[in-house]
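Standup notes
- HV: blocked on the assembly model, inputs below
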Amino acid sequence: EAQVTQNPRYLITVTGKKLTVTCSQNMNHEYMSWYRQDPGLGLRQIYYSMNVEVTDKGDVPEGYKVSRKEKRNFPLILESPSPNQTSLYFCASTRGQGSNEQFFGPGTRLTVL
Amino acid sequence: AQSVTQPDIHITVSEGASLELRCNYSYGATPYLFWYVQSPGQGLQLLLKYFSGDTLVQGIKGFEAEFKRSQSSFNLRKPSVHWSDAAEYFCAVAYNTDKLIFGTGTRLQVFP
């Protein structure tokens, strides 16, 4: 089954404790991205990757890092989480090259205390 | 800056009534247009999309949307709403890239 998976689905952590949210897709998609969803703000892009070893900032990249060492994986790293990063996070992937139909993971709800 | 506006934060309808959710995008080249639905506690599911061609697009679950270039709009419609349609709906656009720009969402509540 074609899908985007994220882990963990729920995470409660404390300020400053490094964490990683994993994202994996099995569709051989080139383009992957991370969004955060906040009430009243919709979804905003954090980072994206157009292919292996090619990443770039989205609209709200501060406090986040990503890597793309393999085509299928695109982890989101919070080196020193802060309470304002409490949010619902979505990973997405698409074939790229203008196809634009994005497939979303189930989401990761992160709470930073 | 490119933006998407969903003017209705919250809409309440009775089951069986018709529905229209509004979406406007900022002026510019015609983007790719999408509607996604997010049920409570779930991820995003694509309802329909417009890339080119016929401006009336049919989607899943009985939804349709009409692209109106003159109004920069892509409103979502359903002739008869079911209780299971209660969810949050997001309009999104993309301008020749794979980056989606989302509206702030419209929460739909359905009363029996």
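- HV (later): unblocked. The interface with chain B takes residues 31, 33, 35, 40-45, 48, 50, 58, 90, 92, 94, 96, 98-102, 104-107 of chain A (CB under 8 Å). The mean pLDDT of chain A is 94.
- Next: hand off to the docking folks.
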